[in-house]
TrEMBL record:
Name of the protein in question: Condensin complex subunit 1
InterPro entries registered for this protein in UniProt: ARM-type_fold, CND1/NCAPD3
GO MF term set: histone binding
Span of the signal peptide: none
GO terms under biological process: meiotic chromosome condensation; mitotic chromosome condensation
Domain of life: Eukaryota
Recorded GO CC terms: condensed chromosome, centromeric region; condensin complex
Length: 120
């Protein structure tokens, strides 16, 4: 007998959550292999000075964080550091918008960072 109603919805939601947390961004696929490069670009803005590259890499990091709460927690400090230290308006604007999305998606993970978000 198949699942119906709320039980089926819960099972499907749990499966989607599992896929997001474990399969979409892991080292066994293309997205997972690119993640270290994105992290390197975001952590070395003095080496990679291109505004477009900084904007793209920081926004890509934020999008990766939207997929998985684990990736989100691991990279929150980096994202806030980029937001605070970047001299580029486009980078800061992109991250403010992305953080709004992250606050909606993972409110419990971002709650401790709220004072830092509104400090500036």
């Amino acid at each position: 007998m198949g699942l119906v109603g709320a039980v089926a919805d819960d099972t499907e939601a749990e499966y989607i959550r599992y896929v997001c947390e474990t399969e979409i961004i892991n080292s066994d696929n293309l997205l997972g292999t690119i993640k270290p490069m994105i992290w390197t670009l975001c952590t070395n803005p003095d080496k990679y000075k291109s505004t477009e590259l900084q904007a793209a890499s920081s926004l890509t990091l934020a999008k990766y964080m939207m997929v998985s709460s684990k990736v989100c927690e691991e990279n929150l400090q980096l994202l806030f550091t980029i937001l605070e230290r970047s001299n580029e308006d486009v980078v800061r604007a992109n991250l403010v918008i992305a953080l709004g999305d992250l606050y909606f998606r993972f409110p419990n993970e971002l709650e401790p960072w709220t004072p830092r978000f509104y400090a500036r």
